[in-house]
């Protein structure tokens, strides 16, 4: 497992690993005669060179059968050649830039891509009277993906993009960017930032600089209202509109069972988020693939099994694979998930939690 376990993105690895443990808690640590062992490696953040070196160590020293995890796009892209050379399946549990799955025939993704969740938000905004939008996105693959997809869909629906800023991936000071947006007087901001601490910092600045009072709405991907930090963000998130493929508040028997399994395996100190759900889904895919290969860990056989397993995963029908996240299917030709993407409004009932 190659993921971020320390630094500002530490929750990425912790949440994915927590989801994996939840699945193993439910289904045991043995499948098709194979005992599942997770070997953790910490990239410490967006560190492509470190991620590649760790993946090479896992292949050559630890003799792993699969490479899994990958919270951030730069790390996933750096490891793709290692997966190809070693012919090891690489299971992406978060990194969401569209091009990742084109970089190796041994990559399968169980999370999402940014266009899948930004285009629905753009269409929703246009239909709900928002005509002028300013984009604020993190300056790396997913942010640029999100901005492009939102802009194309919003303009196609009759909207106007009135400006954009790209913020640093690490340690951004949002104050000047937020002021620039306020001075431009758009009707709304479309925001994409990596989940976690950056969302807390941006929401604080949004409130302090009075954008809501100035009539500037905030619409975003659900990374901003990541379930792992939503309570810490507090009241500034109330009224924020987001689109995303997972929410801990989603009402379904599958999600209830997932949250219980997560708490049983990891305790109740951290609310499971979309990366935890992807870790759970990733382990489900791995178990099913191993069943289909009869326990063989040959890379080509496993990739064929992943493809067969992914042809149908609609949770609202009698599909084989029922998931805690939103209903989805998978295109075997691209390894992309195709989801129904909910739009949600953050709210806080009296005496309740956000």
Task: Report on the architecture of this protein.
Helix content is 41%, strand content 16%. It is an alpha/beta fold and 354 residues long. Strand 10 (188-192), helix 7 (197-208) and strand 11 form a beta-alpha-beta unit. Helix 10 (274-292) packs across helix 11 (299-309). The two termini are 32 Å apart.
How many domains? 2
**CATH class value of the largest domain:** Alpha Beta
Query: Biggest sheet: strands, sense, closure?
Result: 6 strands, mixed
Unreliable runs: 311-321, 326-341, 346-352
Instruction: Kindly report the average pLDDT value.
Output: 86
Intertermini distance: 32 Å
Cα radius of gyration in angstroms: 20 Å
Give the full name of the CATH homologous superfamily of the largest domain: Response regulator
Class of secondary structure makeup: alpha/beta
Strand content: 15-25%
Number of helices: 11
- The CATH topology annotation of the largest domain reads as Rossmann fold
Shape: globular
Strands ordered across the widest β-sheet: 9-8-10-11-12-15
* Portion of residues within helices: 40-55%
In terms of topology, how is this protein built?
Blueprint: E1 2-3, H1 10-27, E2 30-31, E3 34-35, E4 41-42, H2 48-60, E5 67-69, H3 73-86, E6 90-92, E7 107-109, H4 114-127, E8 132-138, H5 141-156, E9 160-167, H6 175-184, E10 188-192, H7 197-208, E11 217-221, H8 230-233, E12 241-243, H9 253-266, H10 274-292, H11 299-309, E13 328-331, E14 336-339, E15 343-345
Parallel strand pairs: 1-4, 5-6, 6-7, 8-9, 8-10, 10-11, 11-12
Antiparallel strand pairs: 2-3, 12-15, 13-14
Helix pairs in contact: 1-9, 1-10, 2-3, 4-5, 10-11
């Amino acid at each position: 497992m190659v993921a971020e376990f320390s630094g500002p993105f530490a929750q990425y690895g912790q949440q994915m690993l927590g989801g994996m443990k939840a699945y193993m808690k439910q289904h045991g640590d043995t499948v098709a005669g194979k005992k599942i062992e997770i070997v953790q490696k910490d990239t410490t953040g967006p560190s492509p060179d470190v991620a590649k070196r760790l993946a090479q160590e896992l292949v050559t020293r630890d003799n792993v059968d699969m490479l899994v995890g990958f919270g951030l796009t730069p790390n996933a892209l750096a490891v793709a050649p290692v997966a190809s050379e070693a012919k090891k399946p690489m299971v992406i549990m978060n990194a969401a830039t569209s091009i990742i799955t084109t970089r190796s025939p041994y990559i399968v993704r169980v999370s999402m891509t940014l266009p899948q969740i930004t285009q629905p938000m753009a269409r929703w905004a246009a239909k709900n009277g928002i005509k002028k939008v300013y984009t604020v996105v993190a300056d790396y693959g997913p942010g640029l993906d999100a901005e492009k997809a939102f802009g194309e869909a919003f303009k196609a629906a009759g909207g106007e993009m009135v400006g954009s800023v790209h913020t640093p991936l690490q340690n951004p000071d949002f104050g000047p960017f937020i002021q620039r947006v306020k001075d431009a007087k758009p009707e709304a901001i479309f925001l994409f930032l990596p989940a976690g601490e950056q969302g807390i910092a941006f929401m604080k600045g949004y409130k302090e600089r009075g954008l809501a009072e100035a009539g500037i709405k905030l619409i975003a991907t659900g990374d901003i209202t990541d379930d792992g930090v939503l309570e810490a963000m507090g009241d500034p998130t109330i009224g924020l509109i987001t689109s995303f493929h997972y929410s801990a508040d989603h009402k379904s028997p599958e999600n209830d069972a997932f949250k219980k399994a997560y708490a049983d395996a990891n305790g109740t100190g951290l609310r499971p988020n979309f990366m935890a759900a992807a870790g759970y889904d990733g382990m489900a895919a791995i178990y099913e693939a191993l069943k289909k290969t009869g326990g063989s860990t040959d890379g080509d056989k496993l990739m064929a099994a992943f493809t067969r397993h992914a042809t149908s995963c609609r949770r609202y029908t009698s599909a084989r694979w029922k998931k805690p996240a939103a209903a989805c299917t998978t295109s075997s030709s691209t390894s992309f998930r195709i989801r129904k993407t909910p739009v949600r409004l953050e709210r806080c009932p009296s005496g309740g939690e956000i």
